[in-house]
Amino acid sequence: MANYLLGIDISTTGAKALLIDSRGEVAGSATTALSLSTPKPLWSEQAPADWWEGIVQSIREVLTDTGTRGHEIAAIGLTGQMHGLVLMDAAGEVLRPAILWNDQRTGAQCDEIRARLGRERLIQITGNDALTGFTAPKVLWVQQNEPELYARGRHILLPKDYVRYKLTGDYAMDKADGAGTILFDLKTRNWSPEVLAALGIPAEWLPPTYEGPEVTGRVSAEAAAVTGLVTGTPVVGGGGDQAAQAVGVGAVEPGIIALTLGTSGVVFAATESPLIEPEGRLHAFCHAAPGRWHFMGVMLSAAGSLQWYHDALAAEVSFDSLTAEAAEAPAGSEGLFFLPYLSGERTPHPDPLARAAWVGLTLRHGRAHMTRAVLEGVAYGIKDSFTLIQNAGLGAIRQVRISGGGAKSPLWRQIMADVLGVELVTVNTTEGAAFGAALLAGVGAGLWTDVDAACAAAIAITGQTLPSSQMEVYQQYYPRYQALYPALAPEFRAIAAL
Question: Which candidate in 184, 208, 229, 267 could, as Cys together with 297 as Cys, close a disulfide (CB 3.0–4.6 Å)?
């Protein structure tokens, strides 16, 4: 009897296979490490063959470690890094290393996309401005810089969908990840003929798209032979890592927000209609839950700010000791602000030249104040995304489901609850996107009627943090934080030009 579900996650750092049972409980997990290639400044690439080799190893390992046989797996869900470009020829052979989401070579192509379509029209169709991370400018870059290779192209896939192709022999993509290419019409949930025509990308190069729980193909005999899976096992659409992560914590209905406080910070808000932030300051994509969409705000240095602060200025002190000190400083850090733009910023200021700074230092301030200011600065930056989401028409925020390394700190959770002015909860699932992909597979296999039912069955609240009276302090301080970037942005550009 097929009692298990397999979630596959292809990130930039590892190929993960996660096995859960029909109750949604984790049975086992295996990850094979992957490495990046940076052949030139600003470039970031990986060999798709490495993803396949890595996931084959991880699947075989998790099956062996758990004593699970291939016929016990009801379905497979896929997730992974978004926005990458895998270009293949007519025979299904990869033509060049994949260009990844964090590759920054395509600034000129982003400008060209805006020029060809008009920035407002681009945002109206796709829900997004052109950014270097997205797939569309990568396609133009190959078109313009490697024309002989581009001429041989016949298929465009995303990273996880290359693994799908190797598993099933089928070209397919889910709608959530498709929207992240900015070749999608957000409202129709499919490829945009207008965008494709403007960019000169053949529509036939792009695969059919499916909702997250839809079956897109079945494991081939060739894939079964090398993985230990069974021929014919269904493979569902899945979703990009953020959409699958949201499913994995139960953020699938409006009013419930997923907040990932990792190296970067991601705010994910499900919507019932294709809402758009008029200036394109938020990402607007399809959700992995059928018939739903989502807003996403991204802060580039969230827990990464605290990591930098610790490593650069307080390496001899544990994180727990630092946050214990910070708890002794008052809310607002007595007028000290930290701008967390260590890697530039994306939301709400898409500015690679933005710089981090402490503002308001006096002789009274010590390490406790500086640490707390870092925690508060990240919280203010996260609130920027919340403010944009609410102003774009989401409505009331009922609950925030927080995960990631930064969420382990009770002080940081309390600061977040106070700055955001909303209840924060933790949940029982810690496997992130792979867990969400496995739940989508369960819906596709008929174990649950829909994504909402899968989340209700598998996800439970484990902790709660309510706003405290300090919320009023942060309501006074937040406008001062908001004023700092506009005031300093001209100086950031001048510094970068030195």
Answer: 267
Contact (CB, 8 A) for 164 and 236: no
Residue 263: closest CA among 399, 102, 135, 47: 102
Domain locations in the chain? 4-238, 250-498
Query: Whose CA is closest to 75, among 240, 244, 174, 218?
Result: 218
What count of Cα atoms within 13 Å lies in the side-chain half-sphere of residue 395?
10
Q: 151: which 2 tokens?
A: 């001429």
Residues 36-60 have a mean pLDDT of 95
Question: CATH topology of 4-238 equal to that of 250-498?
Answer: yes
Selected catalytic residue, list 9, 241, 384, 418: 241
Checking 484-489 for CB contacts under 8 A at 24+ apart, the result is: 484/337, 484/339, 484/357, 484/359, 485/339, 485/341, 485/349, 485/354, 488/339, 488/355, 488/357, 489/349, 489/351, 489/354
CB 128 within 8 A of CB 280: yes
Residue 111 annotated in active site: no
Which tokens belong to 293?
A: 């969409």
| Res 475 pLDDT > 80 | yes
β-pairing verdict for 256-261 and 283-286: unpaired
pTM check: above 0.85: yes
The b/e string for 38-54 (b: 16+ C-beta within 10 A; e otherwise) is eeeeebbbbebebbbbb
As a CATH number, domain 4-238 is 3.30.420.40
What pLDDT, in 10s, does the model give residues 315-358? 999 999 999 999 999 999 999 999 999 988 889 998 888 999 99
Q: Are strands 399-403 and 424-427 parallel, antiparallel or unpaired?
A: parallel
For tokens 């029982």, what's the residue?
428
Lookup: tokens for 158: 């995303």
User: pLDDT tens digit string along 268-288?
Assistant: 999 999 999 988 899 999 999
Distance CA(313)–CA(367), nearest Å, equals 9
Instruction: Please state which CATH class domain 250-498 belongs to.
Output: alpha beta
